[in-house]
From TrEMBL:
Its main location: membrane. The keyword Transmembrane helix applies. It is found in: Membrane. This is Dolichol-phosphate mannosyltransferase homolog.
Length: 363
């Protein structure tokens, strides 16, 4: 019987292309949390497979199920933040929508928080009783282990599975962390743990990571790039934004493209000036495409917005190139130090391009 009283627990489920998993997941949660006051908030990034429709159908039958459908935006971390902030319950839990997280342990996960014995509870694959064999292949195992080792060096408290996407947190702790969260990437737990007070009480609950039944894994090299960017930001105390780090890394790829195309053009018989023009044009186009797919994944330019965005990006990059040269010449003329002048010009150029990209292109 459904309770009219406010929920004690909000379960946030970020999802993309998980239509086939919606009904069995809801049924599993009902069984696991029988007798408790709960709600589920599905945050769907406009899945083309009908995930939102599946949630809407379930919500018509059970008012404890809600949907946030995001159009033109993507990203697990930002989805979790929006879902959590849409609720008022004292405890927030997060799990994936792919059925790999065992909803059967939800009660054990959230009870210590409801009883105020802990502030954060993490479902861990790497303590006694846990198992990560559900990871799809050896590649995913390697990526997961590498991420764990890298992130553990930054953690203020012991945590065996900082890459877990299955956890619960008390609302006051979450609200303390929210202003410090970047909202980028796919590993929101790590960001939360790095943003809460050191005295926060953390416990771990073992769980078995199940094999995926339907849908496709969201883990990709892009996810790891965003994860590494977030680690670098945290290592620098937060003053270097994750998005800027990724933008700068994309710029390095652009330099490589420029050099490669210029050399290919030169070997094909083109003159120096033509080679440089071709290399620069290809580098700018490559930078634009990579930024659209990686740096600004949460707000990509599509359709009619793509060409105007490219034009603004090209104009901004051209102005930035002149600024780069001007600053470098000024410093060289003043101090006579070639490498320092070049480095200063490059820094000014990337900061300028990032400002243009973030404020005018990907607004």
């Amino acid at each position: 019987m459904m309770s009219p009283l406010p929920a004690d627990l909000t379960l946030v489920i970020p999802c993309y292309n998980e239509a086939a998993n919606v009904a069995p997941l809801i049924e599993g949660v009902r069984r696991a949390l029988e007798g408790m006051r709960w709600e589920i908030v599905f945050v769907d990034d406009d899945s083309p497979d009908g995930t939102s429709k599946a949630v809407e159908k379930a919500a018509q039958e059970d008012p404890r199920i809600r949907l946030i459908r995001r159009v033109g935006r993507r990203g697990l971390s930002s989805a979790v933040i929006e879902g959590a902030l849409s609720s008022t319950s004292p405890v927030i839990a997060v799990m994936d929508g792919d059925l790999q997280h065992d909803e059967g342990i939800l009660r054990d996960l959230v009870r210590p928080l409801l009883e105020n014995h802990a502030d954060i509870a993490v479902a861990s694959r790497h303590i006694e009783g846990g198992d990560s064999s559900g990871l799809a292949n050896r590649w995913r195992h390697m990526l997961s282990q590498a991420g764990i080792r890298l992130s553990q060096s930054l953690l203020p408290m012991p945590l065996s599975d900082p890459m877990s996407g299955f956890f619960a947190v008390r609302r006051p702790i979450f609200e303390q962390a929210v202003p410090k969260l970047t909202g980028t990437g796919f590993k929101i737990l790590l960001e939360i743990v790095l943003s809460v007070p050191r005295q926060a009480r953390l416990i771990e609950v073992p769980f078995v990571f199940r094999p995926r039944v339907s849908g496709e894994s969201k883990l990709s090299p892009l996810v790891m790039v965003q994860f590494l960017g977030m680690l670098i930001e945290r290592a620098f105390g937060g003053w270097l934004p994750t998005r800027f780090i990724i933008f700068a890394a994309v710029g390095l790829v652009g330099i490589a493209v420029n050099l490669l195309v210029s050399e290919l053009a030169r070997f094909s018989g083109a003159g120096f000036q033509v080679s440089q023009i071709l290399g620069t044009a290809c580098a700018i186009l490559a930078n634009f495409q990579l930024n659209n797919r990686i740096t600004y994944l949460d707000r990509p330019l599509r359709g009619r917005r793509w060409l105007p965005g490219l034009c603004i990006f090209v104009i901004g990059a051209t102005i930035g190139a002149f600024g780069n040269i001007g600053v470098a010449e000024l410093i060289y003329d003043t101090h006579g130090h070639w490498s320092r002048a070049s480095a200063a010009g490059a820094v000014i150029g990337v900061v300028w391009n990032y400002a243009i990209a973030s404020t005018l292109v990907w607004r």
